[in-house]
Amino acid sequence: MKVIFSRKGFDASAGGCPSPIIDGIPLSLPIPYPKSTSSYKHLDLGKIVTDLTNGRVSKSDFCHNDPDLRIGAFGQVSSAQSHLNNQNVGFGDLFLFFGWFREAEFVDGKYRYKKDTRDHHRIFGWMFIDQKITVGSETKQFSCDYSKYAKHPHAIGKWASNNTIYIAPKTFSLFDRVSVDGFGRFRMSERTLLSSHTAPTKRFWTVPDWLDPAKGGCIPSYHDETNYIDGLLKTAGRGQEFVCQPTQDDKFKRWTIGLFSDAETTLDQSSTSAL
């Protein structure tokens, strides 16, 4: 199984502020995208996005709702998809979606960021790959064949020829030990936090042993050993997806199963002995 850390949601240039964590749930705000058919209001994010951006982004603005973790679909295209192809990403691999977050609250009729909280990188969702479909530049045939996903952004309009949609299974047997949902969202926890508490910027991650070459772990794509500084990973500014091929089976399995204990959706409690 490969693990793909996939950067999604608001950033400094698209949106201009962190996505919020509200009542312990990271809520990734899709980036603005005028060619979309979904608005923030349509996704019940209108007031949140308007308040947190001080009106720079409005409820009526259209956005790129991808990944769509309501239906378990994710699209990629152009150089980012070429990178996934070159890394042989496909069936059974795991997308871990992360983004820029900060805790927020609703006070006096308005959403605002909590005082004395830091912005950071955090994993907010996941999706296992069941199908990888090259949709191509013309999306009409895909929409006919896969009507459930016809409103996904990458199933609408024209894209580059390598336009691809990944579809999740309903459930996934994790290492044949734990049954988990094929896609979903995580609660806020220490396990889903990526950024180091002590580092100067959110780009410095505290990594598990399976992701640390000094401890026999693997190195994500777009990185090399020079990105590891004082035990932390300084993540690359470029690239939407960092692809990892774990080499430490036991440590990786323990970390992954532990991560899914923080899933917002249901973990098969009959299998928790595997934890």
Describe this structure in words.
The chain is an alpha+beta fold and 275 residues long. It is built from four helices and 18 strands. The chain has helices spanning 46-52, 78-86, 140-145, 249-260; strands at residues 3-7, 19-22, 25-26, 31-32, 63-64, 73-76, 94-107, 110-113, 120-128, 131-134, 164-167, 171-174, 178-181, 183-185, 204-206, 228-229, 232-234, 241-244. Strand 2 (19-22) and strand 3 (25-26) form a beta hairpin. The two termini are 19 Å apart.
Short description:
The chain has 275 residues and is an alpha+beta fold.
Give short descriptive properties of this protein.
alpha+beta, 275 residues, 8-stranded mixed sheet, disordered C terminus, 18 strands, 3-stranded antiparallel sheet
Chain-wise SSE layout:
Layout: E1 3-7, E2 19-22, E3 25-26, E4 31-32, H1 46-52, E5 63-64, E6 73-76, H2 78-86, E7 94-107, E8 110-113, E9 120-128, E10 131-134, H3 140-145, E11 164-167, E12 171-174, E13 178-181, E14 183-185, E15 204-206, E16 228-229, E17 232-234, E18 241-244, H4 249-260
